[in-house]
Structure formats: structure tokens, C-alpha cells
Amino acid sequence: MSTTYPNVKEIKQDWILVDAKDQVLGRMATQIATRLRGKHKPEYTPFLDTGDFVVVINADRVRVTGKKLEQKEYQRYSGYPGGLKIESMSTVMEKEPERVIRQAVKGMLPHGPLGRAMLKKLKVYAGTEHPHAGQNPQPVASN
Asked: What fold characterizes domain 20-139?
């Protein structure tokens, strides 16, 4: 028997719509990462990008458990001496809630060129409006 791999040109990538309203951040991020990688499809191949495009709306209404809003910190480093910026999760949620979901999903994807290509297929928006209506994203059932 020989193993067959999907042809890159024949891979069908759908558009999925996820509503983050009142969903727990980590549980939702695992479902999004699974969709981006394509692990929900029978033709999943670890070294190919077989996943779907994911549009997340209502990123500002996502829930977190425990004391994460006060205790969890996000770090950025500019590359210059003294350029380390540390912000709490509550501060980041006020300024740019899209970054919280993007960082959670990014940590669950492969680290390298393939993971970066998968992350480009994630579109996150704070409100209910998104510019991808032309792609007709199908809503996914939330658990």
C-alpha cells in the first residue's frame, strides 16, 4: 500500500464564522486551532495547510475563568534596551481584544513557517461586523 497525500491545488478551504460571545477563551481557541490546522478533515496532513479560514466576531465579549483578567500578563519586546512592555489581560482587553484571541490561538499552532501561514487565515474582529460577507462564512455550533 502507498500513502496518498492531498494535492495542494485540490485542497478545499472553507470559511467558518465563530461568535466569541460568552465563550471561554481557551476552549474556543482550541476549536479554532483545530479548524485552522485542518485536523477536523479526513484529508488532514501534518505538513500541509489543509485548514479552513476562520472569522471570529465579538472578540471583546469573550470570557475567561479564574483571576486571569488581573493576573495574566502579555509581554512585548521592542528590541531596544528597556523596551520590554508588560500589560495585564484586562488592559489588553480594553485596548485591543483581538490580540488576546490571536495570541491564544498562536500558541496552539505549529511554530514555524507552516504555523505562520495558518495564523494568516485567522480573522478576528471586536464587534459583530466583518468585511468577509462575500466569502459567506458558515457559522459553527458553539459548545
From this structure: Ribosomal Protein L13p; Chain: A; (3.90.1180)
